[in-house]
Specification:
single chain, mainly alpha, 2 domains, elongated
Length: 185
Amino acid sequence: MSYYPTEFPSTLVTRVFGSPTMDAFVTWNGTRDENASATPSTTAEEGSALGTVVLEITAMLLIMLATVLGNAAVCWMVISNPKLRTVSNQLVFNLALCDLLTAVVNGPITVVVLVSEKRWNMGDAMCAINGFTTTMFGLASVLTLAVISLNRFAMIVHPQKAGRWFSVWKLRAMIFGEYYTFSFT
């Protein structure tokens, strides 16, 4: 009994996922075809795919540019003006720094993958580094947002205790703990 519908032609191929170096393809009837190719056969499909890739790369570069400019401006303002170094603004600074590092570290890798037609050509070590930094910066951003919401809650509901709960040194320990925790996971 076949798991594949009979209306699919057996010449359609799909990439076998697993090892990034695996070049075998499997046809719809489940047999391996080492000589199969997953590239489009018509020029209309190639032109459409090229337009999509150019659009994706352009969008990614615009997003990276806006992210770098906006978050760098926030970081620069908090660093350059001592009056802005409050507990709340340090949390905003940490969030901007996480987003800035995501754009600077992971953005170019994403562009390279888009240019290479969504194929990973950078090896297993770079894959692990990219996965680690993406996860670390993403989770640090989420945890920072959680601490910002706790800080806002404390400032509204318990204004007398909020200063003790969120002192500058406790906040810096929380922020350091976000990054330190991820380096051992």
